[in-house]
Amino acid sequence: MISQFSKKSPKLMQSLSLVSCRAMSASSPSGFKHFELKDRHKELLTQEFLQERAVELGRDGFTIIHDLYDSETIDAVRDEMDSIISEAESTGLDENAVFTTKKQIEHLSESVDYFLDSGSKISFFYEKDAFDKDGNLVGPLNSVLNKVGHAMHDLNPAFHQFCYSNLVKSLACNVLGFINPCLVQTMYIFKSAKVGGEVNPHQDNTYIISNPLSCKAIWVALDDATKENGCMWGIPGSHKTTPIDYYMKAKRTEIKHQDGSFSHYESSVFYEPENPPEYTIENEVPLEMKKGSIVLFDGSFVHYSDHNYSSKKRHAFTMHMVETKDTVWSKDNWLQRTPDNPFRLMLEQDP
């Protein structure tokens, strides 16, 4: 059993109707789990279709479901993020929160605690080119943010309803293959026009560590994702041929006063080993898709994206999950939850 789980979490008020479903507990002899879905999803996501996607994911490391969400649902997700940003603008943001996967530790050096605390919060991270030489933002806030993360699904009612919908639960169990999944991290990724930075080749199991490794993801296209605006690229089959031997970890040491009372934490984020692997990039394919489509992929699938030099934004929303059955959450993970906001078991959450 993974640590830090809340068997029951406070029931969140649902202010935005994205996917309204009620779970059915029945499972078929084959292990297929049935969930009550909307009519349009019921027609598309048949048992045969989902099993085909699961086979494709097992073979290639990823599978795409085109046009899963309608425009109304996607626009509601985007509108909710606009509201979150507007509220944040009124209170101010941490200007040290610069994000880059190319030299992440270098840019985190002034804000390690901000990064580590984001596992339990809704936190904001700028693109590395968000500021000019005088320290001023080069554009509106929503055009220079890299991402917002990492606990929207447990803190924001609209994202809670989207992420814990029966649609997502069905995909988690019947395509990704989870038995008792936990949604540990969500990210709203901006990839804004002109400034949206590249993401180097990587595997998500590097950053989300369980024993055994079990991370898998659902990536939702909130805009059309094309080669022009920095769509994801991936290497089919790489989840089978590229073992995980590179991890990002964190350490927090409690510092006490002479009388033994708590003073502060000294925090660090580091990689083991220090140098990243040399990924062989060949036979790569662009994962181009329309707004409302999704890609589901294995945590060992090698993927990346280029800088968005185009005039078109490429927003996306990512959900990272791990297994909890016979699985241990690594104490070395950078991503940890505070006691007042523990990890939740997906199947126990109301949509």
UniProtKB/TrEMBL annotation:
KW RNA-binding (keyword) present: no
Superkingdom of origin: Eukaryota
Matching Pfam families: PhyH
SUPFAM superfamilies cross-referenced by the UniProt entry: Clavaminate synthase-like
MF terms (GO), sorted A to Z: metal ion binding
Keyword tags: Iron, Metal-binding
Protein name, per record: Phytanoyl-CoA dioxygenase
Species the sequence originates in: Euplotes crassus
